[in-house]
Amino acid sequence: MGITGLLPFLEKASKRTNVSQFSNGTVAIDSYCWLHKGIFSCAEKLSMGQPTDAYVRYCMKFINMLLSHKIKPILVFDGRHLPAKAQTELKRRESRQMNHRKGIELMRIGQHAEARNLLRRSIDVTHEMALELIKQCQKLNVDCIVAPYEADAQLAYLNISGIADVVITEDSDLTLFGCKKVLFKMDLNGNGLLVDQQQLHLAMEIPSEHFSMDDFLYMCILSGCDYLPSLPGIGLNKARKFIKINTDCDIHRALTRLGSYLNMKSLVITKEYRDSFILAVITFKYQLIFCPLIRKQIRLNSPTSDITKEQLYYAGTEIDPDTALQLALGNCDPFTLKMLHNFDPDQIRNEVNKCNTWVQKTGLSRHISIWSKEYKLMQNQLQRSSQKKDLMDWCTVNSEAVLQTNRLKKCIFMRQQDNSECEQLNQKEILDIYKSTNTMDVENNPDINDLTPSEDEVSPVLIRRKNQFSKYSSTTKTSPSLLCTSKRRMKGRNLMHIRRTIIDEGTVTESKFFAKDISQRNNIPINDNKICSVMNSNEVLVEEKEMKTDKNNHTNNIDLRLLMENNELKKDSCCIDIDEKHNTLFILNECKNVETSKTFNCDSGKSQLEHLDISMDGNIKNNNTNELNNINTSLTSLEFNIDSDFLVQQGDINISNSRLWSDTKVLVQSSNKTKKNKNKNSSNSRMSTNSKINMTNSTRRSQQLYSVQRQQSLLSTYGFEKKKLQSVTQDKY
DNA sequence: GCTGGAGCGTCGT
DNA sequence: CGCTCCAGC
């Protein structure tokens, strides 16, 4: 079913594109779509019970295409049926059985063409078929995951949590689950239709600042969805009209006015319909999914306290943890829970997982598996750093900035390159983070904590993002509604009216998001052999001790104090680029916006350090103090001479380590520019990453400069203001 | 102009 | 599962 006519309805929010734009990224695939189409090539054999692997070969063609674009595929499969869909599934099964009987009968009579047609319609994708594909994928180190219930919710989780950059499917429902990006109708060449959540307001004909995912969800449910048939005469257009007119944030109550708003006096909205509507909303928002990183069943979004267990029952119920894992791995039948396979991700050979390149000859995917402990580790690190906003792996403590790169390096391993659009919080989410008083506070909310994993194992989506749908952690007891949308709150409210946060340069302020772990505040080994530190005293000192390569044991000492002598390395703002081939150190002084270069000596052997960009945000402290205590210092690029595939640009690392800063880049763009411009920007960024090896140093530096400027403007945009000297008063802007 | 049901195609050779 | 067509309101 899906949402009838949703794809054409979303035309304004979609664009033709090729999957290659997600090169070096990760895609999550609704495997059912491929299997279902693949079955057509061998429907007769299957209906006759003859063995065939044609459908597996069909799916592998797509997978190989993705691998050839250096894309990591994650195949997602359906699990058990939701209670809400039990009726639908029953009807489908009956229909298939009917077609099968008729087909056999026609075949017997001799009407082969007609019989074939019916038999094709009688084939359903079984878990055994899925398992054949899963086994084939596991041979190639391609990740698979079986959802506890619907693949849709699982796919959305992978997308929202940042594990996958985009979802490939044919089912328009994915947008309702909150996916950021969905690629529909992808063909074997990789061409498809990309629907971007950030553009949904265009289809809704609502200004982006008033758009909320809740409204979009309500509209789609009203027009009829898998969990609730539509009221007679209500389609997407009527539903949109109602949502646009409605100002009542309690949708349960608002629905009573549906008839009068749409001039459909005969329309009767029963309480049963309104209750079912809320259940449908809950099923979309809080469906049970499996987090591969913590290996537990969790919910797509954290349920608010006003949602009862009875209501959550419709969104799926947990099973015991061991079975849940086996189900997710595809080892057992979702319905009978009978064991059919014995895949154990912990037995995967480490060398396959650790390696991060593609070996074309073997066709073996060398991506890090989501089931790998190492992937889990990296995600946790990323998440911890994200949580504390230790985004750049730099910190400034007691006049000493310490560079810690081992984490950064791991992040590079994990996300070789990020698609800049993929990881971004949208503008409203950022705003919500700053203005929200309770929903974001996952850790302090006992109700939510009950439903979320322990602190060590909190899923990325739960920590990094707040529930994208819920606007409040509602404490009202009026209805099971997902009550208020932010629409009303946003009305007439301009960013500039938000009370600004004063940044006090005199104290080290550690935000929940940007602070660094205390344990990390010392010299920390970059690698096994390297220690690198930056100290802020009267002059910036960048010191590199004991640079050794692993293989040849060459020592490469670079004392950057040299740079200070000619004032080339400014305290407040600089960028260093080491070109080892030419023994040259490039320096960009951002205050002067000039570049200088300096030759240095190094051993003839290969050093591991190939490119080091250090950027210090001068504007934050631009009133001057010679002290550098509070410089917002950030490592923006560190490239290792390992493999060309690892060469990561500053922009890429910004994203993998600093979701907020990189995200805000697009916030500014998207809020000020047209869709066309935005697309242009993103394609530029993709282009640059594809040709990153050929990229000139000056391009890198100019990007970096832009990055710093962007951060400053964003500080202002999001309500931060530098504290005025000798003034403690907080003024409203 | 919008809704909604019926009927068709999905692969591959 | 989506798409197209078309009758009906």
UniProtKB/TrEMBL annotation:
Its cofactor is Mg(2+). Its main location: nucleus. Residues 1-99 form the XPG N-terminal domain. Residues 680-692 have a biased composition (Low complexity). Its EC number is 3.1.-.-. Residues 138-211 form the XPG-I domain. GO terms for biological process: DNA recombination; mismatch repair. It comes from the Eukaryota. The keyword Metal-binding applies. GO terms for molecular function: 5'-3' DNA exonuclease activity; 5'-flap endonuclease activity; DNA binding; metal ion binding. Keywords: DNA damage, DNA excision, DNA repair, DNA-binding, Endonuclease, Excision nuclease, Exonuclease, Hydrolase, Magnesium, Metal-binding, Nuclease, Nucleus, Phosphoprotein. GO terms for cellular component: nucleus. Binds 2 magnesium ions per subunit. They probably participate in the reaction catalyzed by the enzyme. May bind an additional third magnesium ion after substrate binding. Belongs to the XPG/RAD2 endonuclease family. EXO1 subfamily. This is Exonuclease 1. It comes from Tetragonisca angustula. The lineage of its organism: Eukaryota, Metazoa, Ecdysozoa, Arthropoda, Hexapoda.
